[in-house]
Specification:
alpha+beta; Arc Repressor Mutant, subunit A; 2 domains; two-stranded parallel ribbon; 7 strands; binds zinc ion
Length: 283
């Protein structure tokens, strides 16, 4: 185990954690199941150029500034214990953890201005860790030439739900397969209104459609089986997909799609009433 002290030239700690190592660390269940740690990290990640101070973020989000330092220390400690390559020694000679995720840029008005390390930022980005619309990621993956175009019937197969709160971070292949099957099931038509016009996909000339998880994946923990199944995936034209996420009157749409899928979801072991589903969409 190597002891690393502050570099007197750069005023920072040269820790050399690679992007892949950060990816492994971020996928650890003790981080994935820790909403406080993820929430603090996400807020830092969303700051311009990943630069902030605990004080500025505390003010922005109405939180105690110590929340950010505490969560950052915890993340640093987990990373050091996982990597087992070095210890960071602070100015007081004691082991410290704040420099693991952060680079100190300056001290202004008594507040330390910190930046997330670029390797950590890259790991967050490549894992889609804070992607709020998983559908967007899946739809990008759907644009591939290996798509089977024959028809598909729901199998009502119950899949074990993923153990991590952010599912399958490194691998979207199962989601993509479920989404492909949902497209085949919908026979390449918008399921809100089959007459909605679309356009041919560049990749194979089939109608361009997007897939959307009717019960959003972020609520996966509330169900006993996986909700990342074709029975829970509806196919929508671009306009309808954006409308269900961002439209003013999306309630009617959700109501319609819920009544369309209610029975199929039930057979697939997924029960949800309309009022709960609307709550998931914050309606
Ligand atoms: Zn969507
Ligand atoms: Zn449509």
């Amino acid at each position: 185990m190597m002891d690393i002290c502050r570099n007197s030239l750069t005023h920072n700690y040269d820790i050399h954690i690679s992007v892949d190592e950060w990816k492994d660390i971020l996928c650890l269940s003790e981080i994935q199941n820790d909403n406080n740690m993820l929430s603090a990290l996400e807020k830092w990640y969303l700051a311009p150029n990943y630069i902030a101070s605990c004080k500025s973020l505390g003010k922005q989000y109405g939180l105690d500034f110590r929340f950010f330092s505490v969560q950052n220390m915890r993340l640093g400690k987990i990373a050091v214990n996982h990597i087992k390559r070095f210890r960071l020694i602070g100015e007081n000679g004691k082991e410290t953890y704040w420099p693991v995720a952060w680079i100190e840029l300056a001290k202004e008005n008594g507040a330390y201005i910190m930046q997330l390390r670029p390797e950590l930022v890259e790991a967050i980005r490549s894992l889609n860790l804070f992607e709020t619309d998983v559908d967007a990621v899946i739809n990008k993956h759907l644009q591939n030439p290996d798509m089977k175009h024959e028809t598909f019937d729901f199998s009502y197969e119950k899949h074990e739900k993923p153990t991590l709160s952010v599912r399958n971070l490194k691998d979207f292949s199962r989601s993509v397969e479920a989404a492909q099957n949902a497209l085949r099931h919908a026979e390449w038509k918008c399921e809100f209104n089959a007459s909605h016009e679309t356009f041919p996909r560049r990749i194979d000339g089939f109608p361009y459609l997007e897939t959307h998880h009717l019960i959003p994946l972020k609520y996966a923990n509330k169900f006993n089986v996986s909700i990342d199944v074709p029975e829970n995936i509806v196919c929508l034209c671009s306009t309808c997909h954006n409308r269900i996420h961002y439209g003013q009157n999306n309630k009617e749409m959700i109501k319609f799609l819920w009544s369309l899928r209610k029975k199929d979801l039930h057979i697939a072991g997924i029960d949800i009433d309309l009022s709960e589903l609307l709550r998931f969409y914050l309606i």
